[in-house]
Design brief:
2 copies of one chain form a homodimer. Chain A is α+β, with helices and mostly antiparallel strands. Chain A has helices at residues 6-19, 32-39, 43-55, 84-90, 109-115, 152-159, 162-168, 188-194, and strands at 59-62, 66-69, 74-77, 95-106, 122-132, 135-145, 175-185, 201-210, 216-225, 229-234. The longest helix of chain A is centred in the N-terminal third of the chain and has 14 residues, at 6-19. The structure holds a DNA duplex (21 and 21 nucleotides).
Chain lengths: 239, 239
DNA sequence: TGATATTTGTGCGTATGTATC
DNA sequence: AGATACATACGCACAAATATC
């Protein structure tokens, strides 16, 4: 049996090192020259192994700086009930939210369509930033019909939580009716807030939440930092 | 009542033009200078309108070339049953698949874990390209346990369809057990196959399909061109 | 291949109306 | 009322990418 290529062995070894926690997330690997010396191979061979690992998203090189262990992305379940606080807490991380803007204005076309309103009807808009363990995870914009929810903005300002604020306004439960997902590149504003570089990959989801009677209560758009989040869908049922 | 900004009016007007089909997808809008003349405003004002539309993904500018109407992305439902042919055909487009590679080899670690096999156990691997209306939509790699499916590669070569090939091998139905989604940037190989530029956004999904008895039959990874696809999840049920 | 025109991207300066303190 | 900040709009010039001949 042919033994596998040296670079594969090295890649496996380093992958194992990372898996065993000998290099923690964000840590810098030894320089390529040092790794080459350790494994007794040419630097090119180490580079081939690192290239493979970078392609798999395990590490990311920074020219002139070093090769760093990539942060393992946070799992974010997209199911019938999407709850940021629960999702993050379940993964053992500490959730937090930061308010960027709270306002009431007229609904745009797509917002009106999603919420089943007339264009221009008053809506509450909540722009914010979601964090896990102090690290920005996602930018979001939630749009709510204003008429049935007069006290929502005040509740949001207090709690910062959509779930809690809706409960205060009399909506004890809501479920996800539809979700759409695309990939985008971060623009300057998103990059700034999410502390990623411009042009980094972004997962954009749009979703509509409905109350138990089927009335839309929230139209949400979320921009996840692609490097930090994996959306997971567990055994969902179609139509 | 304050009239709204000129640039907003222009953005609405152009958005309407696109919606009405006066500019079809892929078409080039008149040059900024011409639009400025048409609306009787400064070029900056037109640019502000176009910037808004670009931010919403309605158009995308190409320096030196023009501003083009963005293609409306193909909807791709991710539900309990994920079937490429049906998904595309339902959207009124013509599906096609192109085989890039068919082989049998030993399972890697992650593949073995997903398929509930020992690492190194034989697996069939199907690398391919999915197209809708002749346009590349996604790259995929499907991995199947080889032992229970001896004739699979031949069936795949004939039909190019996973569903059909599995049926030939005695698996009449299969459902999606788990799906994971992240955003990446296209590398050179992916860019080449998908005919997008390197660094363009990619939607990567990994999923496991199981037969009615709950045994994993396929471990699939798919790289969607982010600009051309929107994943949709309709009313799924969690855990 | 190379020169030229076209088109978008960027920067600066100026001016005006409208909120906000 | 005054000062300040901000959004909007116009004008000009040049850089950078692309298209064309």
């Amino acid at each position: 049996m042919a033994r596998s290529a040296i670079w594969k062995t090295i890649a496996n070894s380093l992958t194992d090192d990372i898996g065993q926690g000998r290099y923690s997330t964000g840590a810098k690997l030894p320089a390529e020259a040092q790794l080459a010396a350790r494994f007794g191979v040419n630097r090119h061979t180490v580079r081939r192994a690192l290239a493979e690992m970078a392609d798999q998203g395990l590490v990311h090189p920074r020219r002139g700086s070093g090769v760093f262990v990539a942060a393992t992305p946070t799992d974010y379940p997209i199911g019938k009930r999407v709850r940021f606080h629960q999702n993050i807490a379940k993964g053992g991380q500490t959730p937090a939210k930061q308010i960027l803007a709270l306002e009431t204005r007229g609904a745009g076309k797509s917002e009106a369509a999603a919420l089943d309103l007339e264009p221009g009807a008053p809506v509450h808009v909540y722009d914010g930033l979601s964090l896990a363990d102090e690290q920005p995870i996602a930018l979001f914009q939630s749009v709510f019909p204003a008429d049935p929810l007069p006290g929502l903005l005040a509740a949001l300002e207090q709690t910062q939580s959509v779930t809690a604020a809706l409960k205060i306004c009399g909506i004890a439960d809501y479920t996800r009716a539809e979700t759409r997902i695309t990939a985008k590149l971060a623009n300057a504003t998103q990059a700034l807030h999410l502390r990623i570089s411009e042009g980094a990959p972004i997962l954009r989801t749009t979703g509509v939440n409905i109350d138990p009677k089927g009335r839309p209560v929230e139209f949400g758009r979320t921009w996840f930092a692609g490097d930090r989040v994996t959306l997971t869908l567990d055994s969902q049922v179609g139509h």
